[in-house]
Design a protein that fits this description.
The two termini are 15 Å apart. The chain is of the alpha+beta class. It has five helices and seven strands. The protein has a domain of 103 residues: OB fold (Dihydrolipoamide Acetyltransferase, E2P), CATH 2.40.50. Helix content is 45%, strand content 28%.
Amino acid sequence: MRRLRRDAVVAGLALTGGSAPAFAAAVVDATAKPYMVGGGWIVALIFAGLGGFLLRKGIAYRRSAEAMSAWQTVEGEVLESTVRKRVDRGYDSADITRYIPQVRYAYKLGGIAREGATIRIGLGDFGYMSEQQAREHAGRYPAGAQVVVRCDPQNPDVAVLEAGQVGGGNKVIAGAIFLLLGVCAAIFAIWIASLAAR
């Protein structure tokens, strides 16, 4: 109780223009300090790592979408067309159901028979909230249909049926937010480390 009263007096002095600055008087419990510093750095690394991953993926989506205009096109055939249901755990513990249109197709490039399963970059990550929309999208590519396949000339095993991308912008924004949270956590850890212990 004495510590709490002393801290309250110091904080009151700082807020009312007294001689003790708020940050100069800040102290932290000696036994808790290592955990707070370590925890801050762990959170910073987790957020920064997740942010970097999302940023890289979002930027890769957008770059691939921009490069598709120069990709080679070949004839292909749809082998299978279906919709997959995926249930994700939401932030508030509520389940989020997504429906992913899936198409498997065959094509030949450089005299080699190949298979692809990407309709559009990012669609497999996001899908649709409506099952009907997903089925309509998959229905554009019924089994046995002839399709135009876009192939990456640098990596012929990378192919898509549709130009463009889905969700690249969202991943970039989410990645930037997580990176910012990581920086804030690192600043917190550095600040706690600089405080006097008692």
